[in-house]
């Protein structure tokens, strides 16, 4: 098992990456589960795949799991589900010092973490991420949120988990499309700051996705280490460092909004397309080789993902996509900084991007 410290001032915690962590969840959480009843939030698919494993461990340790089983999918990150979850946690008489368990992907982690941040002005929670995306990204770093009709993650809080248990065995039941979507956030760490890791992805990504256990442990651990370092340096995204983790997301979130936050485009798929767009747009501006942008697009295509937004059949123009971007949380005094590339492994925040130029670029991409 790899143990990666997330060294946040005043609230450090561990990310444990290994196999069998769900089977031994009660022991892993020893000392944190103070009461007989343990509140666990999950979704219906994760519960079907892993509910009995977690239940068995908790029951064997003398606990009585209290399950909150939500519908699977992005629509669960909503005001309605948040309100109902908060009411349920209050009915469970959760105290600040208790630990709420979040068993699932980024949807469950983001929603549960946000509920934990506001119940009694802040309770503890433990992330039990079961998707590749959640293990390499969403369970770490403390961004929690729901979506609103205005856009993605627009209401939320920074609230760090007390512990993260990334069980690699969970990836064995994850559908291939979800694995691929999570892989986009793995590749992101290479593109934003670690060219050697992008090379590793090109060499080993396919075998990692196919199930090689050692490669999976390496991909998850190296991703978590990269994220932990950035989060330690800029927890609240105020210094322009954490913003690097948003590479591909301004484009990606606009595509998710345009497709109605539906199964038509998963978050990771939007991020993959968004990073290809950021790379091509960097090439259009002249500070990134066009051939390298196509290298990135090819890598995602080789991994089985869509490489061009024209394939989405969006039936909209570039201006419709840039309109969604006005809600981006990086907006600053009316301008939107964009994460762009100078090289593979060297992302930067460009503050001189004109949205009209982005819209014109997207018109070309929609017709590609
Ligand atoms: N907080 C952050 O820093 C952060 C980072 C990245 C993404 N996110 C958010 O995460 C969300 C996406 O997360 P996701 O990709 O994990 O999606 P998800 O939570 O919707 O899970 C994907 C699907 O896989 C199923 N599933 C999960 N684990 C499974 C398993 N082990 N076996 C079988 N099925 C399983 C789920 O039921 C769901 O249908 C988005 O809302 C995104 O905005 C947040
Ligand atoms: O942890 C971060 O910081 C990230 O930006 C990680 C992203 O992968 C994630 O999708 C995040 O939720 C996006 O943040 P947002 O602030 O653009 O909503
Ligand atoms: Zn993301």
From TrEMBL:
Zn(2+) binds at residues 185, 249, 267. HAMAP family: DHQ_synthase. Binds 1 divalent metal cation per subunit. Can use either Co(2+) or Zn(2+). This is 3-dehydroquinate synthase. Its cofactor is Zn(2+); Co(2+); NAD(+). It is found in: Cytoplasm. NAD(+) binds at residues 106-110, 130-131, 143, 152. Belongs to the sugar phosphate cyclases superfamily. Dehydroquinate synthase family. It comes from the Bacteria. Pathway: Metabolic intermediate biosynthesis; chorismate biosynthesis; chorismate from D-erythrose 4-phosphate and phosphoenolpyruvate: step 2/7. GO terms for biological process: amino acid biosynthetic process; aromatic amino acid family biosynthetic process; chorismate biosynthetic process.
């Amino acid at each position: 098992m790899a143990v990666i410290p997330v060294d946040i001032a005043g609230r450090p915690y561990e990310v444990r990456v290994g196999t069998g962590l769900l089977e031994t969840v009660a022991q892993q959480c020893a000392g944190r589960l103070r009461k007989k009843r343990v509140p666990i939030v999950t979704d219906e698919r994760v519960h079907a795949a892993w509910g009995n494993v977690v239940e068995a461990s908790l029951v064997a340790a003398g606990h009585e799991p209290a399950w909150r089983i939500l519908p699977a999918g992005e629509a669960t990150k909503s005001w309605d589900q948040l309100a109902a979850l908060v009411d349920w946690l209050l009915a469970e008489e959760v105290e600040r010092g208790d630990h709420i368990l979040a068993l699932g992907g980024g949807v469950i982690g983001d929603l549960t973490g946000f509920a934990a941040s506001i119940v009694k002005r802040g309770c503890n929670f433990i992330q039990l991420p079961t998707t590749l995306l959640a293990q390499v990204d969403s369970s770490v770093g403390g961004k929690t949120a729901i979506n609103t009709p205005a856009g993605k993650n627009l209401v939320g809080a920074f609230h760090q988990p007390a512990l993260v248990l990334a069980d690699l065995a969970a990836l064995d039941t994850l559908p291939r499309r979800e694995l691929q979507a999570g892989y986009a956030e793995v590749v992101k760490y290479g593109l934003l700051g670690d060219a050697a890791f992008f090379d590793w992805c090109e060499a080993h990504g396919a075998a990692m996705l196919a199930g090689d256990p050692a490669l999976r442990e390496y991909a998850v651990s190296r991703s978590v280490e990269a994220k932990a370092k950035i989060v330690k340096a800029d927890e609240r995204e105020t210094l322009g460092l954490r913003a690097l983790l948003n590479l591909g997301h301004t484009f990606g979130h606009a595509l998710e909004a345009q497709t109605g936050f539906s199964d038509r485009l998963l978050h990771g798929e939007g991020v993959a397309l968004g990073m290809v767009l950021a790379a091509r747009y960097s090439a259009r501006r002249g500070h990134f080789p066009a051939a390298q942008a196509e290298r990135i697009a090819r890598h995602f295509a080789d991994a089985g993902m869509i490489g061009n937004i024209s394939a989405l059949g969006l039936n909209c123009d570039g201006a419709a996509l840039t309109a969604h971007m006005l809600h981006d949380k990086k907006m600053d005094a009316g301008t939107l900084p964009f994460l762009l590339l100078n090289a593979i492994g060297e992302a930067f925040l460009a503050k001189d991007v004109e949205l009209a130029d982005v819209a014109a670029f997207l018109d070309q991409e929609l017709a590609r």
